[in-house]
Amino acid sequence: MEDLDSFEEPKPKYIVRRYLAGFIDYSIVYFITFLLVFILGTPDDEYTYHLNGLPALIPVLFWFLFIVCLETWFGATVGNTIVQLKPVTFSGYSKKISFGQSFKRHLLDPIDMFLFGVIGIVIIKTSDKNQRLGDIWAKTTVTKY
């Protein structure tokens, strides 16, 4: 017979909320990137716009400030704030994630969001701590506010 005191309820995975948060964040990033390319870029003979040289770093800088820095400074990205989620660390020192943890989490976003997020969803569902690949590397997880 199983001891009821040792029974631990599974933690919610918040799959839909996490998917929606990523969709919101990256919709904003892509929209601003397209605007920047159209405004700052130069058209070629086929009217395709390109950013070359130093201006090509502006969308990357925007991603860095909008995703990594906002999450570090305020504890959550815009998308996570809207869906009432926040990343937390596993270390005993602080529940708020560090700059390095946020950077690690989001460096792996292209893998986690591959195939419309299927990779991340599968990893979250199979992880015992409900982590996606970026969370595993950064030693973080996502919880409700």
Describe this structure in words.
With 145 residues, the protein is mainly α. Helix content is 55%, strand content 10%. The chain has seven helices and four strands, in the order H-E-E-H-H-E-H-H-H-H-E. The chain has helices spanning 15-40, 58-74, 78-82, 99-107, 109-112, 114-126, 133-138; strands at residues 42-43, 49-50, 85-89, 140-144. The strands form two sheets. It has a two-stranded antiparallel ribbon with strand order 1-2. It has a two-stranded antiparallel sheet with strand order 3-4. The mean pLDDT is 88.
Query: Can you list the strand order of the major beta sheet?
Result: 1-2
Largest sheet: 2 strands, antiparallel
Structural class: mainly alpha
Order of helices and strands: HEEHHEHHHHE
Q: Could you tell me the strand content as a percent range?
A: 5-15%
Stretches where pLDDT is under 50 for at least 5 consecutive residues are none
Q: Give average pLDDT, whole number.
A: 88
Q: Please give the share of residues in helix.
A: 55-70%
